[in-house]
Amino acid sequence: MQAKDSGILIIRNVRQAVNDNQHKTYDLYCASGVVTAIYEKEPTDDAWPPRIFKEHLESLLYTQIDLKGKGIILPSTFQEALEVTTKAKADFGKHIDDVYARGRRLVVESLECGVTVMRAHVEVDRTVQLRCLDVALRLKEEFHACCDIQISVFAQDPLFEDTDAEEPGSNYRLLEDAAGTSGVSVVGSAPYVESKLVQSQENISLILRLAARKQLHADFHLDYNVDASSPPLIYDLLDLMRSLRWTQQSPKDEPRMVTIGHGTRYTLFNGAEWNQLKECIGDLPVALVALPQSDMYMMGKGGGDRAVLPPRATLPVPFVASRGIRVALSVNNVDNAFTPQGSVDPLGLCPLGVTVYQDASETACTTLLKSVSTEAKYAIGLRQPAASKSLSISQGDPADFVILHENSSVRSAVLNPCYTRTTIRAGRVVAYRRAERWSAIADPTKGRPLYRRLLVFMDEMSLWCAGFVLVVAYVVWAARQELHPAGTK
Fold this sequence. Notes:
Layout (H helix, E strand, L loop, with lengths): L7 E9 L8 E7 L2 E8 L9 E7 L2 E16 L1 E2 L7 H4 L6 H18 L1 E9 L7 H12 L5 E8 L14 H10 L4 E6 L7 H18 L2 E6 L11 H10 L2 H4 L8 E5 L8 H11 L4 E5 L1 H7 L18 H6 L4 E3 L19 H9 L4 H10 L2 H6 L21 E4 L5 H6 L5 E5 L2 E6 L16 H34 L6
Parallel strand pairs: 1-5, 6-7, 7-8, 8-9, 9-10, 10-11, 11-12, 12-13
Antiparallel strand pairs: 1-2, 2-3, 4-5, 5-14, 14-15, 15-16
Helix pairs in contact: 2-3, 5-6, 11-12
């Protein structure tokens, strides 16, 4: 897939995602993949919709996008877009082209939503071997000009083959091999699938030590329950990170991140327990990731007659952020047995979050927007300049963002994210999507496809023709009446 190359990109009359003055508009100039200049503008009320056009300028391809003061620009988001369901794994070897096609579709749809960085969990085990990894590496290469696909080799199945096993089995050996593959950035597991607590704890140790040895990020689907009697394993993880001197072993300019997905057990924490968790995390590079579409669907599977609704069972993102804990919001399964509903769009989680967390305040809206953009990047280990930690775009930032053409504020982007978007990576337009609208009450013909307009025209012409035939018939009848009055022959 080729990006639309550009030497210079100019985005005119765009609003930034800041709450201090959402009526200001700006011109952004981008070159060599970074924002080179930002100029404040007066809002305009010119024609809608925005225009995108190109022209050559000094032998460079020059791209200009004029938003007419009606669009909002956000940092790019990320998406975990390639997680495989256990149910389909047995047939992967027979249908590897289908696996590739599904992965490609998810990447393309994510790009169109505004995603330029995504973490792809690819399962490695005795059933699928390294087939999923091969597909992920192929997609990573194909889309390298348009987005960054961060590959996480992931053990969804147990590392220990039975309850009595003291040593990991073949799943771990395969994972070791996969973790050493060029192009892999992350190694992870789901410790909750092990048969007993001590094996879950050893699972964490094996993965964390493997990540340290291979200089990779680590990703755990951890504490995925709402059982008050189940001890939170996050404390075992944090203790081990300190004993391994995790921060000191990481490169200074790019510390290795430990990402914790789900964490539904923490929804049972009270305020004191959240404070304790914050203190235990301290300065360790750890981030939580709420996965509400999956969490709420899977954690509501308890018994009973369902007269009493199950708990929400997903991390309360605005609350967690208010406690100073780094937290992101993400989609992790798409159209599989774990999450049959929803789309790949991370921004689609924002209105869901407003409902789940029952908070539509400006602070909550800003937190939700950060959780699918800047905080999401942090959670997967992408370090950003200090100035880029906010939602606003600054001079010198990477020119990676998504334009929401029909949203003009943080609040509108969170409460009702628009469909029409343009995705920009490294100063190049890499994807866009547009919505075609038509309403009979507004205009019965304008906006319709050409063939529909022709049908309308033909319908109208047929009525005229029918009327003309009736008139002619009447004239003929009247003439005959004059020539042959009633009663004459």
